[in-house]
Amino acid sequence: MSHLKKITLLLLVLVLVACSKSLIMSDVETAAESPAMEMPEDARLGESSADFDDFAAEDGEADIDRETRSQQTQRLIIKTGSMNVEVDDIDIAVGNATSYVVGLGGYIQSQNVSGSGRFKSATLTLGVPVEQFENAMATFREYGEVGSENATGQDVTEEYVDLNSRLTNLEATQTRLRELYEEARNVEETLEVDRELRRIEEEINVIQGRINYLADRAAFSTITLNFSFVGEPIVTEPESWNLGFTLNQALSDLQYSAQNLADGLVYFAIAVLPFLLIFALFVWVAFVIVRRVYRRVKQSE
């Protein structure tokens, strides 16, 4: 079989693999119910990478290996939680939460403290190991009075298994393409194989990045804590009436207003009034000229 036919056959297999993508998850569920789907070791030892005609059969073996992996994969749950807590001291609550999370092996994603006194508040975004999520939420409830609380979980196991299956198939295709690239005999074959190899490598990078993201998000849960101050409201007693103080304040305001008015008049007389007089003079001259011209026209008629 010529190299061009091999390349054509490879591209045909890639199209068939892409079309069967929608059937991957149903195959995974069937494999989970039937543990007898494991591939025997002697079948794996009988694989041959030299014969390109066995490429479709090797893809079938990769599917069986994918099903076996799905049986061994633990459930991946991305957990997130949020809690609004009223505390007596914002600084103490923030310090306790930070120390507790670091002691669990977690980390602080963000921390924001604003306001002062009884208007002080704080928001913490914490990364907690997933196995300590429930314990952490229970601990934070003891910090004060909980106003509201929310916890959610997202199961990404199916997506994780599907991505790993696609990654296995793409890596097998990548290996075959590299072999074809080494065996290419002319420029046309080399360029065609290189183009397809680059596309497969880009898909591998995207899928590997998504797998790493899901694994990291499932390993550490995110908890958002909102701390607000709770305390007795401050009651201010009304001040006693002082008539003398009110009169002094009124006289002071009157003096201030009179000074502002005098300053405004002086500023107007110096900075504005001369321009107004000049403008009024031009208007009067123009009016006199127009009036005389009108009279002459009237007399001539």
Strand content: 15-25%
General shape: flat
Low-pLDDT parts are 19-62, 64-72
Alpha carbon gap, first and last residue: 116 Å
Cα-based radius of gyration, to the nearest Å: 41 Å
Written account of the structure:
- This protein is of the alpha+beta class and 301 residues long.
- The protein has helices spanning 3-19, 24-33, 41-45, 55-72, 90-103, 133-141, 157-183, 187-219, 243-271, 273-300, and strands spanning 77-87, 107-114, 121-129, 145-155, 220-229.
- It has a five-stranded mixed beta sheet with strand order 2-3-5-1-4.
- Among the domains are: 3-74 and 158-187, no CATH class; 250-300.
- The model is unreliable at 19-62 and 64-72 (pLDDT under 50).
- The chain is flat and about 110 Å long.
- It starts with a helix and ends with a helix.
- The longest helix has 33 residues, at 187-219.
- α2 (24-33) packs across α4 (55-72) and α4 packs antiparallel against α7.
- Helix content is 63%, strand content 16%.
SSE topology:
Blueprint: H1 3-19, H2 24-33, H3 41-45, H4 55-72, E1 77-87, H5 90-103, E2 107-114, E3 121-129, H6 133-141, E4 145-155, H7 157-183, H8 187-219, E5 220-229, H9 243-271, H10 273-300
Parallel strand pairs: 1-5
Antiparallel strand pairs: 1-4, 2-3, 3-5
Helix pairs in contact: 1-7, 2-4, 4-7, 7-8
